[in-house]
Protein: Lipoprotein
Organism: Paenibacillus agaridevorans
Amino acid sequence: MKNWRTMSICLLTLFLTILMGCSFSQESGEATGSSIILEFSETETITDAGVQLAYDDVHEVKKFDNSFMVYKKTTTDSHLYLGSVRDKQLTEYGFVGEETYIQDFTKNEESLFGRPMTLLTGICGANCVENYLFEQVDGQPQLILRLSGHVLVADLNEDGEKEVVMMQGSPQIEIHVYKRIGDQIMKVNLNEEIGTTNSVTYNSQTNVFEMIINNETKQYRYATDSDSLISL
């Protein structure tokens, strides 16, 4: 009888251990496999934009409508800068690319973060892209974001409000997502949130983030009801 009681206790202990192990594994899978809750942080404060220059002190290279101008500061300089012009005064926002790529500079009107925005993009090399995002405030452009990387506009969580996806770095690609939370535009590094040192890319056709580990493709989709990634 005593041996049977001892055996029963051992079997019960073993069963509880296995059960607890299964529960723990399931919770870990939900946290690190099937769903990753994203932690957003504030974007960097833009401190060096808004320098005032005299229009006649620079050399115009390209003009976008009557507001934005791309220019260089000396005739021999290949560096290009972005500014806005008003009453012969120039507000400088910063370096925007190289003169070699001037034909590839673009200005697009976008609906971003639930608001009309202007996105200006300049090229400074094969994997060097500078982006400036503006919002009109009291009839004047206000710089919202300055991003160095390849930028895509996408409705990640399919709520009708588009976010910014920025791919940065080469050959190691990092994905940064910018979205409006409350009254602030916040950002998150998906590589860090996923916990990978491998490149992460974004497929705009399928709205899926992809990464390759040991020759195996792992995919994540942005959740529609929360700021989280769902493993596919």
About this structure: The mean pLDDT is 85. Residues 35-231 form one domain. The chain has one domain: 35-231. The chain has two helices and 19 strands.
